Amino acid sequence: MQSSHEFIPVTIDKSHIITIGERLYTESIEFIRELVNNAYDADATLVEIIVSEDTIEIRDNGSGMDREGLRQYFNIGSQQKLYSPKSPIYNRDRIGQFGIGKFASLSACKRFEVITKRDDFAGRVIFDKEQWEKTGDVWQLPLEILPPDFRKYNGITVLLTGLDRRFEPNNIEQKIIEGTPIKAPHFRVRINNHTVTPRSLSGHKIPFLEGTAYGPVSGEIIIVSETASAAENLGIEIKVKQVTVRRELFGMETWGKAMARVRGEVNADFLSITSDRTGFIKDSPEYQEFLKVMQKIMEGVKISLQKLTTKKESRKVSRALKEALQRIYKALAANPDLSPFGALPIGDETKGMGSAADVTKKEEGIKEEEVKTEKKTKIPEKKRKKKPKVKRLTPNAIIKKIKFGETGVSCVVDSFGEDGPEVFSEETTIYINRDHPLYKRESARVDTHTLNLARLITQEIALMKDPRNPRQAFERQSKLLKDAFVERSG
């Protein structure tokens, strides 16, 4: 029994080419980005994009294409750029890979026209969607040979007509910023005579450069101010060959609202991207190594963010504490009988109390003390009767002193744990626990923050006057708070 052999041709419906383009580029605006990147690969220094009501023109001054170049241009999935990954003039890393972007454009327009000039060759190819679909199995596109002087310089012009929707220049610019290498030297993109420039963010910058077995990982993370934070476009941009592929949070989803302050980009040219250029081959060893590096980098970013947040919080606490002590100072001056420090020395009314000079210069006797990690509470050894609760303060402690004559109290706002007391005193030092739940709640607003600090401080000052009689101490505290916050007429 003899067997016979036949051949089955592999065919594909022409309409599927457009469908593939539509699926690979989920947004039809993506094809503009692809055309700009083609110009970059061709060593163009300028790409002009002209957007009107129903046409888009993309014109570049790159090397252009001859007949063979046009054949490669319309060769779906051509490997030409893999064989020559560097451009000849500027030695650029070529970006385009799959050659499907032009077909994606047909999902947004009816006609795709390419005009090219390379030295003595000039030609035009018209890709009419309706005519192409009518020709059945014929896959040929008409090529019109133009006179060499049809265009003055080398390059390519792509003209899209019969748009099925309006493309806004602002949206195109956003795609160009993210999806093309506009930071590269000798390369510029203009949209309707407006030059596209990279985004510029201000804030705390964290540059990085890490080596891997597959190549370097470099970039910059920026922690912006709270006013500049935004809920949209969260995450770090991952770029391959200067083009953003996607954004990733790298664990920031557990940081709460603070993650909205973190922006930046990371460059890793060795990563393998998916065919639609929207993701990576995540099970590859290159991507796993990349994740390890980014985990290390983001740990450092989190520490920096916490420090910046604490620094801002400390400034807020310092202002509130200063205002609270100023008010308490005035209340004690008005009620010297309630002061545990005695009355004002005679003749000091115009100079201030103790080291406090004029109100506008030294803020009515409120002094800020320097905070050191190893700082210890200064209590005379002969008066110490029990082991102090506080041996050392944290670097984030806020210390201010209110002087009344030659004496006074030091007020310390520091972290003593959520389970620690809200306020306590040791000799002439008052400690306020910023970790206490009640303190956290009241510090959320400026007005309640200052009032709460004054309440805690006057409570301790009132107890210092007569610790054996708490009831009178609370009455003294009430009087001091009233005079500290109620403005008197006249």
Question: Which key features would you list for this structure?
Answer:
single chain; 490 residues; alpha+beta; Heat Shock Protein 90; 3 domains; 5-stranded mixed beta sheet; 12 helices; 31% helix
Q: Strand order of the main beta sheet, please?
A: 5-4-3-6-2-1-7-8
Classify the fold: give the CATH topology of the largest domain.
Heat Shock Protein 90
Distance between the termini: 122 Å
Major sheet characteristics: 8 strands, mixed
The figure for the number of domains is 3
Report mean pLDDT, rounded to a whole number. 82
Oligomer: single chain
* Coarse shape: elongated
Q: Assign the CATH architecture of the largest domain.
A: 2-Layer Sandwich
Can you count the helices?
12
List the uncertain runs: 346-364, 369-379
Query: Which CATH class of the largest domain is shown?
Result: Alpha Beta
Total number of strands: 18
SSE order in H/E notation? HHEEHHHEEHEEHEEEEEEEHHEEEEEHHH
Range of strand content: 15-25%
Category from helices, strands and their pairing: alpha+beta
Radius of gyration: 36 Å
CATH H-level superfamily title of the largest domain? Histidine kinase-like ATPase, C-terminal domain
Please bin the fraction of helical residues. Answer: 25-40%
